[in-house]
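Q:
Got a chain?
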Amino acid sequence: MNLASVICLVAALTLQGATAAAQDLPASSPTPGGIAVVDLGPADTAGTVRAFFGERRVMVTGHGGRLFAIVGIALDTEPGAATLLLDHDGRDSEVPFEISDRSYETQHITVANRRQVDPNPDDLERIGTEKKRIDAALRAWSDSAPQLNLLVPVEGRRSSAFGLRRFFNEQPRRPHSGIDIAAASGTPIRAAAAGRIVETGDFFFNGKTVFIDHGQGLVTMYCHMDEIDVAAGDTIARGAIIGAVGSSGRVTGPHLHWSVSLNGAMVDPDLLLDNPDQG
């Protein structure tokens, strides 16, 4: 099939149909903070097909004889018409899809350490330096094919949901970009999927943190740890212990903050879980 035929087929698809066609692909939820699963047609297209959303390359994976683009949508994305750019061996084409609206609940948190809400100038300098490292880790890209069904990384109670509109000491802050799982300090934390450690560190807000690159723009982040048992460059298996739950950084108690980044966008981890009722 030539690229023109692929594009015509994509324009006619429904995202819900794409999800139903392949149970081991992520759940398709084309909303802010969600994932669009875009059917690119039969996988017998000659040559290499690369896909981009904005300036970010997105995952393309085969399943059931077809190609799918797996597109992460950032929480601050405006609902409405969106465009996926395809590069087929240097030939560009655009694929339209629609982003639907989604509302999230609010959460009010009281933090005793006021510097964690209103950082001083030295803190702000540190935060700026750390943000560059964090952003680089979350946007890591490798060509290895990732596992798309993730494990919940720690046993515990789900204490905060993804996407909450947060207020710290009644001051509005950025939406919650992951899920929080409350557990006792020292509880083992496991890798959600196989991958390579791309960054670790002890950050102002996130505390002791590990970033794992799983391939093709899929990165997971594990925050507020008590201890880190891996180092940058390590290759790890699905379910391997990477550290332990703690209360480092901006917290009100011991828990794991777990985020999933897809093409640089924080997305709802539940869309990629083996069993969304876990945790």
In short: The chain has two domains: 3-99, 106-272.
